[in-house]
């Protein structure tokens, strides 16, 4: 299925306002409520809309510190990569893990209360990850821009 301009408008609105009512959405994208509802259902069924979530405030949840951790593994064998990925996916403080091309094998996005909490996460979890040869952590001083909305 290819997306037309109306589908793109629907996706754009839903990315920013996931709880918008179908009536309000249909008005925003200039469709009847029933046509809008059918399109949203099709976008969900076809996998364009993967899920609906609540975006939480890290400060209010007392995890305002973001740390980016670059990890280099000892080897690139499939079993080493698989073991690392399985282990890192179980660490609740790790929000993202990306396999990289470049100087590091992986980049992790980790949240913590502060530097002491990150030291705990490092000791209890990161330092125990299998196959790690080198790790470098960079603390974000301030988030300048952040979005979850993909360009449609």
**Number of self-contained structural domains:** 2
In the CATH hierarchy, what is the superfamily of the largest domain?
Lrp/AsnC effector binding domain/regulation of amino acid metabolism (RAM) domain
N/C terminus separation: 15 Å
Summed over residues and divided by their number, the pLDDT gives a mean of: 97
CATH topology of the largest domain: Alpha-Beta Plaits
Q: Which architecture of the largest domain would the CATH scheme give at its second level?
A: 2-Layer Sandwich
Largest sheet: 4 strands, antiparallel
Please give the count of helices: 5
Would you write up a description of this structure?
This protein is an alpha+beta fold. The protein folds into two domains: 41 residues, Arc Repressor Mutant, subunit A; 75 residues, Lrp/AsnC effector binding domain/regulation of amino acid metabolism (RAM) domain (Alpha-Beta Plaits). Helix content is 35%, strand content 20%. The chain contains five helices and four strands, in the order αααβαββαβ. Strand 2 and strand 3 form a beta hairpin. The radius of gyration is 20 Å and the shape is elongated. It starts with a helix and ends in a 13-residue tail after the last strand.
